[in-house]
Design a protein that fits this description.
Blueprint: E1 3-5, E2 12-14, E3 21-30, E4 36-44, E5 52-59, H1 68-80, E6 84-89, H2 106-121, E7 125-134, H3 136-147, E8 152-158, E9 171-172, E10 175-176, H4 181-192, H5 198-201, H6 205-215, H7 220-224, H8 231-234, E11 249-254, H9 261-269, E12 275-279, H10 297-309, E13 322-328, E14 342-347, E15 355-363, E16 366-368, E17 377-379, H11 406-409, E18 413-416, E19 424-428, E20 431-438, E21 444-452, E22 458-467, E23 486-491, E24 495-499, E25 504-510, E26 526-528, E27 535-541, E28 555-556, E29 562-566, E30 569-577, E31 582-590, E32 593-596, E33 601-614, E34 622-633, E35 636-648, E36 652-663, E37 666-678
Parallel strand pairs: 2-28, 5-6, 5-7, 7-8, 8-11, 11-12, 12-13, 13-24
Antiparallel strand pairs: 1-2, 3-4, 4-6, 9-10, 13-14, 15-16, 15-27, 17-26, 18-25, 19-24, 20-23, 20-26, 20-27, 21-22, 21-25, 29-32, 30-31, 31-33, 32-33, 33-34, 34-35, 35-36, 36-37
Helix pairs in contact: 2-3
């Protein structure tokens, strides 16, 4: 095997693989209703003589352009290790026929099951298959596994969730995701509006494009119309019936990502041969993710697939169930370090006998070991609370991480521990119980857990949110009785974090978190009562400190040749109108223009999100998301633009979406949508 060092000094590019491979650049997979799905396939060169298992990645993100670079890093690698590695564009995406009408529909799963059958029927496949995917591809791998197709033997799922309502981009704790629900919907509206490739689909590409433009809906209208945990969200959530997943699952997450909680739940509920890995990473594959350390994840995937698709004993069955990067304390920085300080630790099972709760009680302004009476404390919303939260689902761009929490702490109720006498290791999901009341029938509570250094710098460890009308569950909102005390539970996001001696723990409580969470209809004052009922349950890890290095260095197959036609750019701006007390946050991102040299395809993506909230009437919040995507080849340039706005008053949400399309700068399509949705408890 020969190694070449790529432009990334942490990653080795494998120049030679165990198997010589060839690529089928385009294949049509027929579906029983007449739809054709577009695929790219990487194969060992002798696969027809010696059939191999298939590895399927099934996505809506266009194999020809927008994921072509990342696909080139790993699919040839799998093929070179003896697999038919297959990348399929879902119905309505890329060059595939049809329209994508929403996330995770039954049709999506039905199509995947037919794709698996088609793969098993090919002369180069031995009939067995695994699925791998990050985010959407991680979701649908789990969902297809729950359908139990006979060809599917295992799933590798990254940055995904088992619960589409409580732990995804739409709602958190029963509250609307302010900065993310519309942003993601606007992105998908633009993604779905892109044309198929004329080189692949032929002369009728424009007809297909216009049909796609006309029939593609703004997904946010459906998402906002289901504000409680109903059948819409239960569909596709494997947490509704974990027992339906009977095959081994390799679940991967990152502490900087928005989807880490699911790894713990899945390890608790899925078959005993499932395993999990959590690193310090953002929403990315671990061999290329930041912050580091990056790992030899593709080698781990091959070991996993060899175990379950080839029947090789790779030692996986003898290894611990969970491996995590236990992060060290650090001073907050919104930009990513090359490597996050910490160490690898492992747990033989989850839940782990090495992790037990420590209870700390909130009283007065203190966080102590025993309950104590304290004065009631009140807090009103501040329009600035949440500005330093960072991005909920970051991809590794500078500026995404939370900053110093002192400005947030200043507009919250804070409860501080004494300086910790020894190193304290947290692993799992902290839970905060609060005895509180509100002066309005609708309110929310946000709880942050922070690491306070002797210098006073406050680092966000984790946070949790609860729409208080959902305090008894997400199915049926129940208005609060103003002034009436209730004992509520807020589960914070999972974390692996080590606090050095001399630092303090801080619990911070506030009634809003803009723009992460959409504000309540009326500004609500929360009162945390000092009767000794409020407490923090902290999952502490105590185990021998064993030094391990469980992973090899990152490896990939050679990346495609890419020419940068325009450099990427990113900016964040926050402004305040002192006269009106209106606060505005603007996040702009430009991926730059890339040219795939071999194909002659060029593409870019630009976005601007503007979040506005009034300090006097937070019900009048608004988020505007603008997108522009260009795709072209040679003399053909296509561009789609979307403009989406979510606003509210005390009774309703208001949605406005528009879609424009251009061919060589000339408008060819325009459409707009408006929808009013009544607020349902939030």
């Amino acid at each position: 095997m020969v190694w070449n060092v790529s432009d990334d000094p942490e990653r080795r590019t494998v120049a030679e693989l165990p198997h010589e491979i060839h690529t089928i650049e385009h294949a049509w997979i027929p579906i029983s209703d007449g739809t054709r799905l577009a695929a790219r396939i990487w194969l060992p060169i002798d696969a027809e003589q010696n059939p191999v298992p298939a590895v399927l990645e099934y996505l809506p993100y266009r194999k020809n352009d927008f994921t072509a670079i990342r696909d080139s890093l790993r699919h040839p690698y799998f093929a070179g290790h003896g697999y038919a590695s297959v990348r399929v564009d879902m119905r309505g995406c890329g060059d595939s026929d049809g329209i994508l009408l929403d996330e995770y529909l039954k049709q999506e799963q039905d199509d995947a099951i037919e794709v698996l059958q088609w793969l098993a029927d090919q002369p180069w496949c031995n009939g067995s298959a695994g699925m791998i995917g990050k985010s959407w591809g991680g979701f649908n791998g789990l969902q297809v596994a729950a359908r139990q197709p006979e060809q599917l033997k295992t799933v590798i799922t990254l940055c995904s969730t088992d619960d589409r309502y409580a732990d995804d981009v739409h709602y958190r704790g029963g509250a609307v995701m302010g900065a993310d629900m519309l942003s993601w919907a606007s992105t998908m509206l633009a993604f779905n509006a892109r044309p198929p490739d004329p080189k692949v689909v032929g002369e009728n590409w424009r007809e297909q494009w216009l049909a796609r433009l006309d029939q593609t809906p703004p997904f946010v209208e459906a998402w906002l119309s289901h504000q409680t945990r109903d059948a819409y969200w239960q569909h596709g959530s494997i947490s509704e019936d974990y027992a339906a997943v009977r095959i081994p699952v390799f679940a991967v997450g990152g502490w900087a990502d928005g989807y880490t909680n699911a790894v713990f739940r899945m390890l608790e509920h899925l078959p005993a041969f499932s395993k999990g890995v959590i690193g310090p990473w953002a929403h990315e594959y671990p061999e290329v993710a930041v912050p580091g350390p990056r790992i030899g994840f593709l080698q781990e995937c091959v070991r996993w697939f060899d175990q379950w698709l080839k029947g090789k004993d790779t030692g996986i069955l003898d290894e611990p169930r969970l491996t995590v990067w236990q992060q060290d304390s650090y001073e907050p920085n919104p930009s990513y370090p090359a490597k996050r300080a910490g160490r690898w630790v492992q747990e033989a099972s989850w839940p782990s006998r090495n992790v037990s709760p420590r209870v700390l009680f909130l009283s007065g302004q203190r966080l102590g070991d025993s309950p104590a009476a304290g004065a009631d404390r009140c807090i009103r919303p501040s329009a600035s609370h949440g500005e330093h939260a960072g991005v909920w689902c970051p991809f590794g761009e500078d500026g995404d991480l939370p900053g110093d929490q002192r400005p947030e702490d200043a507009v919250s109720l804070t409860f501080d521990s004494a300086p910790l006498p020894e190193r304290t290791e947290i692993l799992g999901q902290p839970v905060v119980h609060l005895e509180l009341s509100a002066d309005q029938p609708q309110a929310q509570v946000v709880v942050r857990l922070c690491d306070v250094a002797p210098s006073g710098v406050s680092t966000l460890i984790s946070y949790g949110v609860l729409n208080l009308t959902h305090r008894a569950g997400h199915e049926q909102p129940e208005p609060l009785v103003p002034g009436e005390r209730c004992l509520i539970r807020v589960t914070l996001d999972a974390i692996g974090y080590s606090i050095p001696p001399g630092h303090r723990l801080r619990v911070a409580v506030a009634p809003n978190y803009w723009p992460r969470i959409w504000p309540s209809p009326v500004p609500a004052t929360l009162t945390v009562h000092g009767g000794g009922q409020s407490r923090l349950d902290l999952p502490l890890r105590a185990a021998p400190d064993v030094e391990i290095e469980p992973f090899g260095p990152p490896e990939t197959s050679p990346v495609l040749t890419v020419e940068k036609l325009r450099d990427p750019a990113r900016s964040f701006k926050a402004t305040t109108d002192l006269a009106s007390s209106e606060r505005r946050l603007v996040n702009e991102s430009d991926t730059g223009m890339n040219l795939l040299v071999a194909e002659g395809l060029f593409f870019d993506s630009r976005s601007r999100d503007t979040h506005t909230v009034s300090g006097h009437d937070p019900a009048q919040a608004s988020t505007r998301c603008e997108r522009s995507i260009t795709v072209g080849r040679g003399s053909l340039e296509t561009r789609v633009e979307t403009d989406s706005t979510l606003s509210s008053d005390r009774e309703n949400f208001y949605l406005e979406n528009s879609l424009l399309a251009f061919e060589n700068g000339v408008p060819v399509f325009e459409k707009s949508w408006q929808k009013k949705v009544r607020r349902d408890g939030g």
